[in-house]
Every structure is written in structure tokens, then in C-alpha cells.
Amino acid sequence: MSEHNKAALLERDAEHLIHPIHSNAATAGGHVWVRGEGARLFDADGRDYVDALSGLWNVFIGHGRGELADAAANQMRELGYASGYAGSTNRRAIALAETLAEIAYPSINRFFLTSGGGESTDSSIKTARYYWKVRGKPDKTKVISRIWGYHGVTLAAMCATGMSVYWPMFEPRIPGFRHIGSPYPYFYDPPPGKTRGQAAADELETAILEEGPDTVAMFIAEPIQGAGGVIIPTDDYFPRIREICDRYEVLLVSDEVITGFGRTGTMFGLTHWGIEPDIMQFAKGITSGYIPLGGIGLSDRVAATLDSADQVWMHAYTYSAHPVCCAVALENLRIIREEGLVEMAAEKGAALIRNLEQAVGGPPSRG
């Protein structure tokens, strides 16, 4: 049986694999990818396709980069695995944390590493709850997120995700999660005297007050909503969100799984609006999808609270700080920085916007 016969491969696939977003119908007519090169993918029929979505928003440096393969192989030969639990570490994890501290928001200098975005969301939720317990406010447990926001589909992450299609087959959801409106500038109808961004941000204040400020632990948001429709907020939205979180002592969690590492023309998304989160979470682009890795970064204030606690932070994953994943991430971040991919994204994004505005006769009103 040919290893490159699509029909035979799909038949074998159907016998043994369960896919993400599983559907027999979709799988039967699916692709069998056999090779990637740059921005192109090649399937078992010999056809090639432009990978316009960069995998799942994650193949930042393109397919087939031998540097990442070499980084993984070299690390495997030296140290393929070692536990990252308290009392153990490895050189690649240390170096990656140092690199992340260089490129992250100035107030974020400590990092916990996961295997992907869903684990990162769960880590943010648990960290926020732990933080408030240590601070003497154990009732601050609730999570507020946004309609159309995507934060993963592990059980807690699914409850934060604001896309209801992911809920029915796995309900009941965990209590303590609430969704507010998305800051979609074209559909939002603000009351008199407020901009769309202000009115959208004020929904967070309303939700906090209705739930009770002493019960809300965190607000989680993507700087630019991705899977929910590539929703870009107006410039006054996130500064107001930061003010509201500070006013009611709610941790602001920036979900940078898609926007992190340069996709929006800055290394991280909230930089566009001059604010910093209390917790940031990341995955995807940190390794360009070549190997699973994610994590959360903690502000100095949050990290200091964890360090001062008498109770152990009982949160862990077997593959946290995996040396091979960290080695690949380090090489990937080197390429992103040395090849100027963040600056390139900003330049090409600006050119795309200019061309689109010319095509439609000028920029739309988003105030």
C-alpha cells in the first residue's frame, strides 16, 4: 500500500484516529498533508496549497525550517526530558524564560510553561484564584470573558470561551463564568455621549458590579479576537478596561495565544494601546507550531504574591519546561527577531490596510 495514496491513507485514518472537531463526513473528504515548504503545504495527491492561515495561526516562520529540526535533535541527544517540578530545571527553560522577559511587557518577568493554549488558560484561571486566596480574598473566583472570545476547549477554558457552539455537548459548564459583549466597532450601538469603545468597556464594569467586585477574580480577553471574527477594538477600549480592572481589583489577563510574538506588528498585542496585563498567556507562535509549547507570564506583583505564599501552588504539568520544546522555542524566537518578522508584519499590515481603504474609498468610521 502506497504511503502517498490519499484514499488508502484516509481509510486507515478513519479506522484509528479521532480528530479535533471530529466529524466522519469532514474526515472522509479531508486532506492528507505530507510536506511543508515556506508558505506552502503539499498533500498526498501531489497538489500544493498556500497555507494562508499559517496552520492554525501558528506557523510564523514557515514550514520546513531545518534550524528548528536541528535545535530539537541536538537537544534530544543532550537531554530529551527532565522534570520541571520544583527543585528541578534545565538550561533551555532558563534561557527561554530570560528571552521571554526581554521581549514581554516590562512588568512581566516570570513564566510558567505549558503544552498549549488551553493549558495556559486553565493556568491563568487557577493562578488568579490562588492569587486572591493568598491576598486574603478567597471569594474572588469568578471569570469574566467576552462573547466570540476563544480561549481553548479544556473544561475551564471552554467555559471562558464565548463561542456557544463549543458548549452543548459537554455541559453543564463550570459555575462562575460570565460573558460580556464583544467590542465589535461596526455593530456596537453606544448610548449618547459615549464612543463604541467606551460603551463596550463599560459592560465589564456593569458585569463586575452585578456579580459583586469581591467575587470577580479576572477578566480575560484577546487583544484582537481571532476565531470569533478578527475583531479589532477601538483605541479607547483597552485603556478603559485597564482602569476598570484596577478600580475593582480584577486581574486583567491578556490571551496572546494568537497575537503574541509579532502577528499584529508588535511583539504582544496590548502594546498597541499602551497598557500591560497582570497575566499574559501564550502558545502557538512561540515554536511556530513545530512542537507543543505554551505558558503564562506573571506581572511582578502577581509573581511576588506567589513567592510570598505559605501554601504551595499545587499546579503542574508533566511536560512543563520540556527541554526540547524550550530549545525549539529559543531557535524560533531567534529567527523571528533576527529576520525582522515583527517589523515585517507591521509594514505589510499597514500596506494591506492602505490598499483596502483605497479600494473602498477611504477608512470606515469606527468611533
Automatic annotation (TrEMBL):
User: Matching InterPro entries, A to Z?
Assistant: Aminotrans_3, Aminotrans_3_PPA_site, PyrdxlP-dep_Trfase, PyrdxlP-dep_Trfase_major, PyrdxlP-dep_Trfase_small
Q: Give the keywords, sorted.
A: Aminotransferase, Membrane, Pyridoxal phosphate, Transferase, Transmembrane, Transmembrane helix
The record's listing under SUPFAM superfamilies reads: PLP-dependent transferases (SSF53383)
- A Pfam cross-reference name: Aminotran_3
Gene3D superfamilies with a match to the protein in the record: Aspartate Aminotransferase, domain 1 (3.90.1150.10), Type I PLP-dependent aspartate aminotransferase-like (Major domain) (3.40.640.10)
Give the transmembrane region(s).
147-169
State one molecular function term (GO): transaminase activity
Q: Which domain of life is it from?
A: Eukaryota
State the family named in the UniProt similarity comment for this chain.
Belongs to the class-III pyridoxal-phosphate-dependent aminotransferase family.
Kindly provide the name given to this protein in its UniProt entry.
Putrescine--pyruvate aminotransferase
Q: Say which species the protein is native to.
A: Geodia barretti
